[in-house]
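chain below, 334 aa
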Amino acid sequence: MNAAVPPTTAAATPRARSADALLRHLEWTVIRRLDGLLQGDYRTLFRGAGLDLADLREYQHHDDVRHIDWNVTARLQQPYVRQFTEDRELTAWFLVDLSASVDFGSDQLTKREVAREFVGVLARLLTRHGNRVGALLYGTEVDTVLPAGNGRLHVLNLLQRMGQRPEQTAAGATNLRDLLVAAQGVVKRRSSIFVVSDFISAPGWDKALAQLAMRHEVTAVRLYDPLEMELPDIGLVTMRDAESGEQLVVDTHDRGFRTRFAAAAEKREAALREGLARAGVDTLELATDDNLMDAILRFADLRKQRSRLANWSGRTGRAGQAAVHLSSWAGAPP
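prediction:
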């Protein structure tokens, strides 16, 4: 259930603008600055699937089983995988949850607007280097599939489709599994996939996410608002469940209620972390009051750590050490 402070409407926010105006704003304030900061990290940040065989190494936890060399494995009695020279060109897909709960925001931006800005920055960074991006948009179901393409006009089309969608009012429970299963049927070639969602969903999404991660490089971009974690003492407020439309008047002066609210939020956090850990995907936290450029840099740091871990474990050949799962909760709520 979302807190009572009314979410900022699209008409009221200076950043909730047309696709072209938004992209121009992002290009000037974020992308232009990131170009210099990420100049030496682009290859680590965005990696292609690769085609040319480069080396063999011991199998590590979360390696793609399709890369196992069965002949070498049979000879050495230990699984080995083939390493490939990376192809710089890649395809990225954005699986964007635009269900009712992402329309909440307690400050200047809603989670939906944060998602739109994040997708705009990443998509433009990718297409500027000749890569292709596609998207699946989910409201109450997967109702929009934008095939992979490149260029600024393609990014504008994606941002326009995200911005023109009406808010989902009391649309019923979100089932994120539907979005993830649909992606398995749409995304055929190995790609980089960004699941942009607040992960407020019916259970069962973690298994579908794990299946997606077996074939693709998946990053979960988790959206949240600080007010969803802890309520301030602001007196009587009306809380509304964005999924069901149910409303409830509560007294935030009641310390016991605030304590129970925080405990329930922590329980949801624990369940979410367990689900993402089971899926074996990297995670980037993105709050409605976050600095977008800082969030992208956290993502770059995450990829660099992952690359260093893979290189180190590949050199040492220590299967036990290599099985360590790297998951970043940088910027996670307390």
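The first strand starts at residue 52 and ends at 58. Strands lie at 52-58, 80-85, 91-97, 132-138, 142-149, 192-197, 217-224, 236-240, 247-251, 282-287.
thats it, cya
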